[in-house]
Amino acid sequence: MSSYLDAADQAVEHALALGARYADARVMHRRTESMSARNGAVEALEQGETVGIGVRALVGSSWGFFATPHLDAPSVRAAARQAVEIAAASSRVPGPAAMIPADPEVGSWASHCEVDPLDVPVSDKGDLLTAATAEMRSQGADIATGLYQIWDTRKWFVSSEGHRIDQHIRECGGGISATAVGERETQVRSYPSRRGQYGTRGWELVTELDLASQAARIADEAQALLRAPQCPSGQTTLILGSEQLALQIHESVGHAIELDRILGWEAAYAGTSWLNLAELGTLRYGSELMNIVIDATHPGALGSFGYDDEGTKAGKRDAVRNGIWTGVLAGRESAAVAGLDYGGSVRSMDWSRLPIVRMTNVGLEPGPHTLDEIIAATDDGVFMEMNRSWSIDDKRLNFQFGCEVGYEVKNGKLGRMVKNPTYTGIGPTFWQSMDMLSNEIVAWGTPNCGKGQPGQIGHTGHPAAPARFQNVRVGVSG
């Protein structure tokens, strides 16, 4: 809406008039909807709507930020004044002052959407979840749950450098889970993942998941896990399904290559990184099969957009190429501090939060194999899929992950089911052991990535495919 761009214009102009050497303003209007169901009945329905403006001002060496839900002219000017005053007060403390140059962008962008998820009747969505959870319950699940989530976000961005951008991003997804309760344990099977699957698409994404068709299978598998033997312990060949590998990428690559972590800016809350900028371009992160790209243009993936929240146009760049670390997630300020020439990875949760470095879509390029070929080439090992738990240190180096289900692999074939499968490792050692990678890429969406103070929830995407890793410690209890 032109009125929202006008509000952003007013904020920027007023900040400059008050002495800012750079200013930008971002109006965001977001509508949300989510529903959860349990055992054949709707448990909760939440709908929300919020709108406001966030203003950044750069005075001397420091930033100021202020946000308000009021978009009338006096409130917008007051927000700009507060941002400038905060920056001026902060500028007494030396700090970063540079931003890499940027060409002013003027444009519009919208994510592809065939069926507007907010136009689908709530009753139809409820019928979908209640039918799927009722089917799981009828097949013996002690607890059967389902959910969907929808975000409809519009942004209007203006900067003192000449940016004028509007975007419309529609995101949605969902999933189901079946829990079986035994005498001393519970087991869970989920579809399509423990958190569900999400993307920058319309309701067609949820329709394609066909949740009800998977309900009986996952209820049966949850019960089978109660009877399954424990995952054996030891050092062995590990095959990971694509959903688990997506989380592995998120935790041990995506967070590690965030430049604010590498620079120590996140140390007090979310931790730092084991990576050293002096080794950018030379460090061996993984095997030759490891090609990780940062790509906010990936169609339909959850970390996709047209422009980041500094107005930088979405693009694609290497993070790891043939196993060598080559790139980071950066913003214009962190890039300038590090001596790099690119940003494009700065976003905020909503209008009330300061934009920070966030993952976009960070994922693997396809390998030369298929999952069937990987299994057939494995004499002895374990196949694990679907994340159940994760733990990783503040430097994103040492990790332990648990999965919902595992299967022994013997003589090139999947064998018996095993429960409580876990594996542990050290990031670069683990990635260097990858010797087979599938071409069956799925762009998994993570809608709950936490970072920052005050805390922000980010949406990220992780293209991944099944892969094999050698000499991995599995079956570690924790």
Structural overview:
This protein is an alpha+beta fold and 478 residues long. The protein has helices at 2-17, 73-90, 122-138, 204-209, 211-227, 242-254, 259-262, 332-338, 371-376, 427-432; strands at 22-38, 41-59, 62-68, 106-110, 143-159, 164-181, 186-191, 197-199, 234-240, 292-295, 316-321, 324-325, 346-347, 356-357, 362-364, 380-392, 398-410, 413-418, 422-426, 434-437, 442-451, 456-464, 467-474. The strands form 5 sheets. Strands 1, 2, 3, 4, 5, 6, 7 and 8 form an 8-stranded mixed β-sheet that branches. The longest helix has 18 residues, at 73-90.
Topology:
Blueprint: H1 2-17, E1 22-38, E2 41-59, E3 62-68, H2 73-90, E4 106-110, H3 122-138, E5 143-159, E6 164-181, E7 186-191, E8 197-199, H4 204-209, H5 211-227, E9 234-240, H6 242-254, H7 259-262, E10 292-295, E11 316-321, E12 324-325, H8 332-338, E13 346-347, E14 356-357, E15 362-364, H9 371-376, E16 380-392, E17 398-410, E18 413-418, E19 422-426, H10 427-432, E20 434-437, E21 442-451, E22 456-464, E23 467-474
Parallel strand pairs: 4-6, 9-16
Antiparallel strand pairs: 1-2, 1-5, 2-3, 5-6, 6-7, 6-8, 9-23, 10-11, 10-15, 11-12, 13-14, 16-17, 17-18, 17-19, 19-23, 20-23, 21-22
Helix pairs in contact: 1-2, 3-5
Compact summary:
With 478 residues, the chain is an alpha+beta fold. The protein contains ten helices and 23 strands.
Number of helices: 10
Rg is: 23 Å
Distance between the termini: 52 Å
Q: What is the beta-strand fraction?
A: 35-45%
Detail the poorly predicted runs: none
Work out the number of β strands: 23
What about the largest sheet? 8 strands, mixed
Tell the overall outline: globular
Helix content: 10-25%
Tell me the structural class: alpha+beta
Indicate the mean pLDDT: 96
Oligomeric grouping of the chains: single chain
